[in-house]
Design brief:
CATH superfamily of the domain at 62-203: Tetracycline Repressor, domain 2
Mean pLDDT: 91
Order of helices and strands: HHHHHHHHHH
Structural class: mainly alpha
Distance between the termini: 60 Å
Shape: globular
Number of helices: 10
CATH class of the domain at 62-203: Mainly Alpha
Strand content: under 5%
Low-confidence stretches: none
Number of strands: 0
Radius of gyration: 19 Å
């Protein structure tokens, strides 16, 4: 017998379908009908979870940010070295992106919109996905493992680099094909290793600013 496929709850299918639709078309051009068809649900069920388009968009922004915060927090082991934690954080970031292939493009759109679909009360969720990186760097600085640096700079460098890499996947694949240079489109794990190694070497105590 073939293996049984996992049963994906309706809400998760809606989040996945809406993420793809909004990542590709944006909020204004995104179509609720298309999201329902892709998720395999009718409008009544979709509106049961999300009462309107604005609530749906806000809900999936928060869903992705919460998932990222939880994944990064789990990777940042306070009992281990800051270097190891930072390397695990980079890996965890890429692992989650593999599970949610349109999330980076979707979130980059929202970042460029200044998080315009979030309410002020939602901003602690944003901080929750920043905190594991900031705390890890702060711990490394305090222990002497890392040179003194503003921890938020590391968050911006790490998340900015990885989000751009993920969001530009189709553009890089096209460029690699047209130009004939495979290095334009590196394998995600290879790029993650490069980012992690660059960060920990640059942060190492004894390196120049």
């Amino acid at each position: 017998m073939p293996p049984r496929l996992p049963i994906v709850p309706a809400r998760d299918r809606i989040v996945a379908a809406a993420t793809q639709e909004f990542a590709e078309r944006g909020f204004d051009r995104g179509r609720i009908d298309a999201i329902g068809r892709e998720a395999g649900v009718n409008k009544a069920l979709l509106y049961y979870y999300f009462p309107n388009k604005q609530a749906l968009y806000r809900g999936i922004v928060l869903d992705h940010l919460l998932a990222l915060g939880e994944r990064l927090a789990a990777a940042a082991d306070p009992a281990g070295s800051a270097r190891d934690s930072l390397e695990r954080i980079v890996t965890a970031f890429l692992d989650l992106a593999a599970e949610r292939p349109f999330a980076a493009r979707f979130l980059v759109r929202e970042i460029l919109n200044a998080w315009g679909h979030l309410e002020d009360e939602d901003f602690p969720v944003l901080l929750a996905q920043v905190r594991p990186i900031v705390d890890t760097v702060g711990r490394g600085v305090a222990s002497g493992e890392f040179r003194p640096v503003p921890p938020l700079y590391v968050h911006l460098l790490l998340s900015g680099s990885l989000n751009l890499f993920l969001a530009s996947a189709e553009a890089r694949a096209r460029g690699a094909r047209l130009v004939g240079q495979p290095d334009i489109d590196p394998e995600p794990r290879a790029y993650a290793r490069f980012v992690a190694e660059t960060l920990v070497r640059g942060l190492a105590a004894g390196t120049s600013a």
